[in-house]
Structure prediction request, 594 residues.
Amino acid sequence: MTLLEVQGLRVAFGKGPDAVEVVRGVDFCVGEGEAVGMVGASGCGKSVTALSLMGLLPPRVSRVSSGSSIRFQGRELVGMPARRLRRYRGRGIAMVFQEPMTSLNPVHSVGRQVAEAVRAGGQVRSRREAWARAVELLAEVGIPDPGRRARDLPHQFSGGMRQRVGIAMALAPDPNLLVADEPTTALDVTIQARILELLEALLASRDMSLLLISHDLAVVARSCGRVLVMDGGRLVEEGPVEALFSAPRHPVTRTLVEAVPGSPASVADAAASPFRTASASFPRGLPSGGEGDGGDGGGDGEGGDGAGGLPILEAVDLVKHFPRSRSPWFTPRRAEASDSPGPGTAPSGSDALRAVDGVSLALHPGRTLALVGESGAGKTTVARCLLRLVEADGGQILFRGRPVGAMAPPELRAFRRQVQLVFQDPSGSLNPRLSVGSALDEVLRVHGLAGDARGRAHRVGDLLERVGLPGGYRSRLPHQLSGGERQRVGIARALAVEPRILICDEPVSSLDVHVRRRILDLLMDLRRELDLACLLIAHDLGVVAELADRVAVMYLGRVLEEGPVERVLGDPRHPYTRALLAAVPRWEPRRPEG
Prediction:
């Protein structure tokens, strides 16, 4: 039986002659208990289609054409009064958003927010019951120590963990249809596998349907029985996942399939198609390790892969600890404390989260070091310590051999221009009131680059072209861009000051495979042409294999293994590294039963 039926969906942004149609006559349906995937390049209309199902498009700048039809459980949603439409949000149709920080309140604990979603679904009556259910949901989506971490604020979580909180909130009201817009984009491969397994289990146990929007063909192939391919606002191909990926007919589908980064060629099973997801069982009681466990010696030393000369940026025994349950800026409200069972005692000084625990790394000009590991392993905290966005509790950071901590303010300002960061979550780093052109112009103006306004305007155009955005995008605001387009703006802004070191925190995690290919090529060209030193933080081992020279594997704040990328990915020595490789998404045609 059909749960959702969309016919002739047309969505335009703007008014009058300036209106741009971004969804152009899309037709599709989702049956009860069915999982349908929707794929396509950034900006093709996937997210706009999803928002139109929920009635969440901004009414002042967008319009769903009167001839469009969205029927859910037999009821027409287009034109339905807002008050009635709200009844279908959450309980009927729930959504997991692409960027978790846009859907989380920064001043409320994550437990309180999930508990509010539980109560809104009408499943429980008391706050205590809602809190208990919220903790269960956080555990279900893989938040460690959920009873304690439920009291933490969103900024105390890594990007991947925030995404898991968003999934828990969407699942709280037990919806009939879950619209998941890039739900695993920010997650490492092991957590991605767990989330996909969770979604599959929910389809069976809750009789729930799924519309999975993704640029990751591996995710769609694993989780969905049918797939829709969009391009330029239109549905260009549709069919069973086996037929579509085995014999794609449309050029866009073929391009998406061919553009997927494969598994590292030296991995034992690299001959397999790069789309199947193999579940990984993590070994319990991993050794505390540190560099000693991955101290490969000999050929794995810095000179072993040809990275001669002194490092341009170096971390020596870096340490950073955070309090587990308390924010340094906010104190949980009394109402929130009453929602949670048990006394809300503050943690002791020894009860600290060891986010970074004795990490040593070195970056060399013209080389890329990749930092991989699960969400929450400490990768992003290392990057923020290197930039002094947070103060390390121990160890040293050396820039060209000079301690960064000893630099005077003018020197520190010059250092920060030399070291630029591409953020994981582009929405959190872009001013929503500044157009793309203004955001890039601001960087050039502050640093006194590119001369006068005319010179800066020319430089802005060059930057947009380098990251694959049309010049007309300079007038757009961040909310008018897709997630992938916002990430490209973030990369352009980092490149604007011509840095010597680029720290890339998941720079392509929100990009479709075709655009990802272009960005990876761009980063490799920039590294070669400008002799850039790069620190690549990533969970996609295919990206690491293509871009990195060396790789360091982190777990619980420590580096367990480090060495040349070919050796670490081709012959991993630590069980945790082997588990990461086992969880790389791959696809193989399903064999017929019988």
